[in-house]
Amino acid sequence: MAKKESLTKNFVLRVDVATMDALEKWASDEFRSTNGQLQWIIAEALKKAGRLKKKQNTKAGEEQKIETTDK
């Protein structure tokens, strides 16, 4: 049986203890896992910088625009 292609990639991230403690606290405050918090932070930074490409809706073949909110 062939493996399904994953939509995510794994990587190792090294951070200092103080940064990890702050990240874990922030994640807990927002009811997210630490991994989920990192994914959210990265996605928000990419949106703000205009670095995310438009996503394709594979079922309908229509492009979906990613909205960004500037604070």
Overview of the structural elements:
Helix content is 39%, strand content 8%. It is built from 2 helices and 2 strands. It has helices at residues 17-29, 34-48, and strands at 55-57, 62-64.
Q: What does the secondary structure layout of this molecule look like, with pairings?
A:
Blueprint: H1 17-29, H2 34-48, E1 55-57, E2 62-64
Antiparallel strand pairs: 1-2
Low-confidence stretches: 60-64
Order of helices and strands: HHEE
Using only CA atoms, what is the Rg? Answer: 16 Å
Distance between the termini: 48 Å
> How many β-strands, per DSSP?
2
Outline of this structure?
With 71 residues, the protein is mostly helical.
Essential attributes:
single chain; 71 residues; mainly alpha; two-stranded antiparallel ribbon; 2 strands; 39% helix; extended
